[in-house]
Amino acid sequence: MRLSENRIRHLAREIAERLVAKGAVEASRGKADLATLAARVLNLDQKLEEEIDREAREQLSRQRTLPPPGTGEYQAAYDQARRRAAARRGIPY
Question: Which strand (E) or helix (H) includes residue 86?
Answer without folding.
Answer: helix 72-88
